[in-house]
Amino acid sequence: MSKVNLILKDIQKAFNTGVSFMLPAVVVGGIFLAIALSSGEAGQNGMQITNKFMKNLNDLGVIGFTMMIPLLSGYIAYSLAGKPGIVPGMILGYLANTPVGDEAIKTGFLGAMILGVASGYLVCWCKTWKVPATIRTIMPILIIPIFVTFVLGMFYIYVVAQPIGFAMNWLVSFLSSLQGSSAILLGLIIGAMTAVDMGGPINKTATAFTLFLMAEGIYGPNGAHRIAVAIPPLAMAISVFIDRKKYSAEERDLGFPAFFMGLIGITEGAIPFAARDMKRVLPAIIIGSAVGGALGMMNGVETLVPHGGLIVLPAVNGKLWFFLSMFIGVAISVLILHFTKPNIEQTDSNV
């Protein structure tokens, strides 16, 4: 086996390790959020939770989701470099999921995965340094974590975040030029942007664009966006229910949490599936979400609140097509997954 193949195999193993350690946070956070938001009412600022107990439960769910991305990144680094990689990986994963810079950029799970891999390999390089025995004892608990976190953190903030910010601003300008000229194309783009990074900068750019238009009294693009946010987790849940042999035991356990997260418009419910099988899952959910967004725009769906999923149906103009667009988008994603994902036994036998 070539060196490149060995590296790719190590990275794939690291992704699987990161997902495995992340899953409990997804389940805990998703279920708490689903229960709390189901008690709320749709308002101008999204789902409004008035019950004090449910607010506290919602806070626990938010914390669970906040921990999800650092856990993913930290244990990717751990798989590649051992214990010294955990802390840099987690801190940098948290950084990837936190707005930074003048443009308040965050790269979400994709950025966290990249930083997790980078942390792992940089830690591995640091472990090859020839240092005196007195220093070697503090290398894994002091020198390596500080060095790796500083170098990659500053590189991310000063080199990576700025170009992403400029790109996101360009995207907003481009989407604004489409408004009123091509409903189908705008819906396709908004839907695809919603699914491509599930809470990352591209998703957040679509959100910011639709919120800007809502302030101007234009609700159609928000309708497309709020249809699309539910499609990835719902599609993954339905795919798990229908094609159980295509998923590991851990992924099958995520079916019901992903379903409930889809109902309340939490796109991040699909992240564990995408992180484990990006080349098949991402195209499927992007296409399904794009179609759902386009159908919503074509049929005049308007969502009057900044939240998504079927839970906001009372605050939707064009309820039938809101539901049908979501249903069709989910069905397309599920079909793509059915024909592209092999049974898990076949995957294992080819490793």
From TrEMBL:
GO terms for molecular function: carbohydrate:proton symporter activity; protein-N(PI)-phosphohistidine-sugar phosphotransferase activity; protein-phosphocysteine-sugar phosphotransferase activity. Keywords: Cell membrane, Membrane, Phosphotransferase system, Sugar transport, Transmembrane, Transmembrane helix, Transport. InterPro entries: Bacterial_PTS_Sugar_Transport, PTS_EIIC, PTS_EIIC_2, PTS_IIC_fruc. PANTHER family: FRUCTOSE-LIKE PERMEASE (PTHR30505), FRUCTOSE-LIKE PTS SYSTEM EIIBC COMPONENT-RELATED (PTHR30505:SF0). It comes from Gilliamella apicola. This is PTS fructose transporter subunit IIA. The chain crosses the membrane at residues 20-39, 60-81, 108-126, 138-161, 181-202, 223-242, 254-274, 281-300, 320-339. It is found in: Cell inner membrane. The lineage of its organism: Bacteria, Pseudomonadati, Pseudomonadota, Gammaproteobacteria, Orbales. It is a multi-pass membrane protein. Pfam families: PTS_EIIC. The keyword Transmembrane helix applies. One of its GO terms (biological process) is phosphoenolpyruvate-dependent sugar phosphotransferase system. Coiled coil: none annotated. PROSITE patterns: PTS_EIIC_TYPE_2. Residues 11-350 form the PTS EIIC type-2 domain. GO terms for cellular component: plasma membrane.
